[in-house]
Amino acid sequence: MNIWDLAEQKIEENKRKRNANNTGNDIYLFHKDPQEPIESYIVIAGYPKTGKTTYLNRFLGNEITINPTTILEYSFGYRHRDSYKDIIHTWELSVDHNLSPLLQVPLIKNHLQKNIGLFIFFDLTKPETIWILIEKFLKNGIQKIESITKDDNQLKDYLEEFSWKRIGGRDVENMISFKMRNQKEGKIFVIVLDF
């Protein structure tokens, strides 16, 4: 069995668990109480002209004229569900790797305690820049998260446990590390980013 078969098997297991525990719509998967409004945060970062704004506008359902992003832009979207308003806050960061500290702007304690996701867009015509971009953004993101959690062990434990829960539990860590130790063909890099 290769790593891809193992990953597919784990996805199917998680779907079965989710369906067994799901009382309603899948939109509540990472939310504790479906009877409360859902508030989520997305950070989209990457080089100019990689499709960040187009992706974001399609996601939010905006049909506005696309203008180039100026460094860091905020937008939001919402929808009504029953008597609740679900809100998504988005930050779009269009920079080169020297401006990656701006990634720390949307990473605040309140956002980390809710649903937050980071998307990094790459210019595949310049493959030499991909790893540089990932390293810079990870370094700045991790520094910010560590500065927030250094005095709050309860938040640190909560974030770690919630992250493991989102990807299927700690057995995923053991499964991946075991598979990577026993992999004989080439190198495999598994990066899980979850704040």
Automatic annotation (TrEMBL):
InterPro entries with a match to the protein in the record: DYNC2LI1, P-loop_NTPase
Major subcellular location class: cytoplasm
Molecular function via GO: dynein heavy chain binding
Cell location: Cytoplasm, Cytoskeleton, Cilium basal body
Superkingdom of the organism of origin: Eukaryota
Keywords: Cell projection, Cilium, Cilium biogenesis/degradation, Cytoplasm, Cytoskeleton, Developmental protein, Dynein, Microtubule, Motor protein
A Gene Ontology biological process term: intraciliary transport involved in cilium assembly
GO (cellular component) term, any one: microtubule
Similarity comment text for this entry: Belongs to the dynein light intermediate chain family.
Protein name stated in the entry: Cytoplasmic dynein 2 light intermediate chain 1
